[in-house]
Design brief:
Elements: H1 4-14, E1 20-22, E2 37-38, E3 48-49, E4 53-56, E5 65-71, E6 85-89, E7 101-104, E8 108-111, E9 114-117, E10 126-127, E11 138-140, H2 148-156, E12 163-165, E13 169-175, E14 179-180, E15 191-192, H3 195-206, E16 209-216, H4 220-228, E17 235-239, H5 250-256, E18 260-263, E19 268-269, E20 275-279, E21 282-287, H6 291-311, E22 319-324, E23 337-347, E24 350-355, E25 372-376, E26 388-393
Parallel strand pairs: 5-6, 13-16, 13-17, 14-15, 17-21, 19-23, 22-24
Antiparallel strand pairs: 1-12, 2-11, 3-10, 4-6, 4-7, 5-9, 8-9, 18-20, 20-21, 22-26, 23-24, 23-25, 25-26
Helix pairs in contact: 3-6, 4-5
Bound molecules: adenosine monophosphate (AMP) and magnesium ion.
């Protein structure tokens, strides 16, 4: 049986590199840039005024100066400023030929076409061509997550189709003869399928696409037909039937589909019978059907894998430190590494962690509020209110 760390390494070892595609600017929000973005022009592209005022020659400051024209943002003064002359200028407008400084309008008095300068500042109030960025310089390095400021920087460099990893495509095969859809009322031994919704929402939150969803009964031949009809995908998620019971079909199904199984159990509670497999560039997971197992396995492995495919960062979940707001019922003694779903909230700048009162890993409404996992290594030690603990904050 693999440890969680060994399982993560096995997953990474088989993770494909998704192709790079160009996407429209705002569609790239939250995605990771694959190639360095460089400035195509100097910024600013010309010497520009930093103030509203007058552009002139510093040498002619003592005398009164004749206003010979105007330079606006977007419309430059076509002539040359000579001695004893100035040009009315506005912020962002090109500095006219001949001028070597700008006097702020507050520091000059004007009567018709003449100005007198009352005070000259040391700064010349000129934003020099290229002082922000030279053409060819990297403005957004590869590996950067594209937020609004980065998208605006790309727009300013004319890069309207940033290169990012294509969206990972997932197919979800939900197995279980007992399952009915959420809009049906279960009869007898039936239960409602909540994992389809859980997985669809988790995929959306992670930036992956649910390319196909299908349901199969616990019957290998039938499930194979359903699985083979799924649309193209990078990752196949099979819910339920991952264990070794008589009606657990996920492992033989993966084998029948041509997948190679890399692990079939992880030293983990809940989620131990997790199966990981690959077929060429495609990956597959068979996830034990209990809703809490689904959530935990997604947080520990599938979510980090999907983020890795999109960002290139192979980060396992990071540990933060917090304080237990309430005691945690100890899991029964077991050699497995337990991950207990919790609610983490900031209180006075520090995290407080409330373990959820789950009845069992089948308790799907017991997950309500979950946004963190508390690792409890074996053998489970005391978890008392007030105790400092390390935990995983789930996105
Ligand atoms: P399995 O892993 O198939 O043995 O299922 C373990 C438990 O999870 C059983 O009680 C199933 O009824 C339940 N279960 C399986 N699939 C789902 C699902 N899609 N939604 C809710 N519960 C499920
Ligand atoms: Mg089942």
């Amino acid at each position: 049986m693999f440890s969680t760390a060994e399982a993560w390494q096995a997953i990474l070892a088989h993770a494909p590199r998704l192709e790079t595609i160009p996407v429209p600017l705002v569609a790239a929000l939250g995605r990771t840039l694959r190639v360095d973005a460089r400035a195509d022009l100097d910024s600013p592209p010309f010497d520009a005024s930093a103030m509203d005022g007058y552009a002139l020659q510093r040498a002619s400051l003592a005398a009164s100066l004749r206003v010979v024209g105007e330079s606006q943002a977007g419309r430059h003064f076509p002539g040359t400023v000579g001695p004893g002359e100035c040009v009315r200028i506005f912020t962002g407008a090109p500095i006219p030929a001949g001028a070597d400084c700008v006097v702020k309008q507050e520091d000059a008095s004007r009567e018709q076409d003449l100005i007198r300068v009352q005070r000259t500042g040391v700064p010349d109030y000129i934003r020099r061509r290229g002082e922000n960025r030279r053409a060819g310089e990297v403005i957004v390095p590869a590996g950067t997550r594209l937020g609004p400021p980065e998208l605006a920087a790309l727009a300013s460099a004319g890069l309207t189709r940033p290169e990012v990893a294509r969206t990972p495509l997932c197919a979800h095969l939900v197995t279980g003869t007992e399952l009915v859809s959420p809009d049906q009322t279960p009869i007898g031994a039936q239960i409602r399928d909540s994992n389809s919704t859980l997985i669809a929402a988790l995929l959306q939150q992670t930036g992956a696409e649910l390319a196909g969803l299908a349901h199969a009964r616990d019957d290998l031949a039938g499930a194979r037909i359903v699985a083979e009809a799924l649309p193209p995908h990078d990752i196949l998620l099979i819910s339920g039937g991952a264990s070794v019971g008589d009606h657990d079909i996920a492992r033989p199904l993966l084998a029948a589909l041509g997948y190679t199984l890399h692990f079939q159990a992880v030293n983990l509670r809940p989620g131990k019978p997790l199966v990981f497999a690959s077929r060429g560039h495609q990956l597959a997971f068979a996830i034990p059907g209990n809703p809490v197992s689904h959530w935990v396995v997604f947080q520990l492995f599938i979510g980090p894998l999907l983020r890795h495919l999109q960002t290139g960062r192979a980060a396992a979940p990071e540990l933060l430190t917090g304080r237990l707001a309430a005691g945690c019922r100890l899991p029964p003694p077991d050699s497995r590494h337990t991950f207990w779903p919790c609610r983490a909230a900031l209180s006075g700048g520090a995290y407080e962690l409330t373990p959820l009162p789950l009845a069992s890993s089948g308790d799907s409404s017991g997950l309500v509020g979950a946004n963190a996992l508390l690792p409890v290594p074996p053998p489970p030690a005391s978890l008392a209110a007030g105790q400092s603990v390390e935990f995983i904050l789930c996105p």
